[in-house]
Amino acid sequence: MxxxxxxxxxxxxxxxxxxxxxxxxxxxxxRVAQQLKVPAVKLVGPAYxxxxxxxxxxxxxxEIAQPTEADLEDFKYNLCFRQHPFRPFxxxxxxxxxxxxxxxxxxxxxxxxxxxxxxxxxxxTRITWTYRRRSSMTFTIQPGxxxxxxxxxxxxxxxxxxxMLPIATLIAWDSDYKxxxxxxxxxxxxxxxxxxxxxxxxRDSYKAFVLCMQGxxxxxxxxxxxxxxxxxxx
Length: 234
Hints:
Order of helices and strands: HHHHHHEEEHEEH
Strand content: 15-25%
Helix content: 25-40%
Largest sheet: 5 strands, mixed
Strand order of the largest sheet: 1-2-3-4-5
Distance between the termini: 25 Å
């Protein structure tokens, strides 16, 4: 393992390396610190959290919480849920719970995003965001003007945004896949921050979100990148 003094300079060159090879020293060089069990209000801000009287949220919550663990054992053939709005999502969850095949993470994630998007769109008069599957964030880093691309399962972005600025990225891997989730999340967050910075360099800060799924475990990671940090990085 290389020491921090042996890491390449500038730090932007770390983005050219596979995150699978990142060590704790790489994260230290990028000044990445992990904070767990963060309240939802701190993750997304109070303006984006539904109130207790939000009827759309209440309905979505009821629909998602409706199937029990026993229901999921044979969900595909359960006639009680044939019209359930999240049926494909729960079918994948059901398969993942009893199958030895671990290639379900990305399919579960996308079924959930697709059905959540559709459900919200049907319940509201206008939806403000959409997504692209199997996408990548591309940008140029200095010195040398090297082009860099960071791949992900998909990108959520505003519907009416011609610049395709990312709101969040989605990543997934199988439950038995040996990988450092912090490194994966950090790479996605840095990619989002730099992508937005290259198109809107005047902002003071850049908020990035990553929705991660491993097996049937879903996690939201977020960070605020300040312009001075990105300028130093690039």
